[in-house]
Design brief:
A hairpin with a 6-residue loop joins β1 (about 1-5) and β2 (about 10-15). The strands form 2 sheets. Strands 1-2 form a two-stranded antiparallel ribbon. α2 runs parallel beside α4 and α3 (about 70-85) runs parallel beside α5. By secondary structure, it is mainly alpha-helical. About 45% of the residues lie in helices and about 5% in strands. The chain is built from 5 helices and 4 strands; from the N terminus they run ββαααββαα. The protein folds into 2 domains: about 1-40, no CATH class; about 55-160, no CATH class.
């Protein structure tokens, strides 16, 4: 029930329950819109540093085109564990270098590049050593054939320290 204030001429609601109901409706609408916005957001959105190598963007595209955005987090983690996103690193090298060695200069295994491809077991062209995009394509295909998804590959890697 409302009435007009004799001096101010404005309407005043005599029942505070109406105020509470209106406030409750606003709160419900707010949280419903918030939940809808959260439901549409992707699970993982990478934030790239400004000095990111171009091939990491290529890798992201390959992953979401092969699987979906939810697999990027696992793929990113796997490559970080294997090579720290260094496309010229051999197993046993602990720093990224601009020098491209066609053979391992350390006593490590013959694992090379972003995904630490065992080049002694898999025939790779010489271009593989200098082409990060080719390495990414190889890793994506390898993961797809052997594990199905990067998520399954990282689970295996966590148990065995290789994939």
């Amino acid at each position: 029930m409302t009435t007009t204030h004799p001096e101010l001429g404005t309407l005043i609601i005599k029942k505070p329950l109406v105020y509470i109901l209106i406030l409750l409706i606003y709160i419900i609408v707010f949280f419903l819109t918030l939940n809808i916005a959260e439901a549409e957001a992707p699970k993982y959105v990478p934030v790239y540093p400004s000095d990111l190598p171009e091939y990491k963007y290529y890798a992201y595209d390959e992953v979401i085109n092969t699987w979906d955005k939810t697999q990027w987090e696992y793929f990113d983690d796997l490559i970080q564990r294997e090579s720290s996103w260094c496309s010229t690193v051999w197993n046993g090298m602990y720093e990224c270098t601009d020098t491209i060695y066609l053979e391992n200069p350390t006593n490590g295994s013959n694992a090379y590049g972003l995904g630490q491809t065992m080049v002694s077991l898999h025939e790779v062209p010489e271009e593989f050593y200098s082409n990060p995009d080719m390495q990414i394509e190889w890793v994506v295909k390898y993961i797809q054939e052997r594990y199905g998804t990067p998520e399954k590959a990282i689970i295996f890697h966590s148990k065995h320290n290789y994939y």
